[in-house]
Amino acid sequence: MRLEPLRRRHIRACVEIERLLFSGDGPWSAAAFHAELDAGGYYLAALDDEDDRLLGYAGLAVVGRPGDWETGLHTIAVHPDHQGKGIGTALLRALLVRADELSAAVVLEVRTDNDTAIALYERYGFERVGLRKRYYQPSGADAYTMVRPARRTQEVAG
């Protein structure tokens, strides 16, 4: 498996993974992925080394200006056939490296019943800071807001 920038050619596979994983919570459309890439976010694709198939993807929105960056983890998803193999962890770690390069905190929302994702985020320094009732639509599922404080590259290396 290798990580590389998410490209428009990957969007059709992203939409299929969205349908498999998030059918009850308004999966992203191709237009949503195009808009995210147009906005200049930091999006990565996890690709199979053998057949170049998309295994997963993740995206970090970056806003602000030098010295005052903010980031939001907008999405992270792994095809159901490839979950539990470390792909989601690799994607998350790569996004956090980018946030650390910017010395930016990372904010995200995660379903309150997604214990696997919550445990992963907590392992990487995220803390629950809020609850958003009925955040996911149309299911009405609640979400935790989680934050990982800004880290400077020197702090991570140390």
TrEMBL record:
Annotated InterPro entries: AcTrfase_RimI/Ard1, Acyl_CoA_acyltransferase, GNAT_dom
CDD domains: NAT_SF
Pfam families to which the protein is assigned, alphabetical: Acetyltransf_1 (PF00583)
Domain spans labelled N-acetyltransferase: 1-151
One example GO MF annotation: N-acetyltransferase activity
Protein name: Ribosomal-protein-alanine acetyltransferase
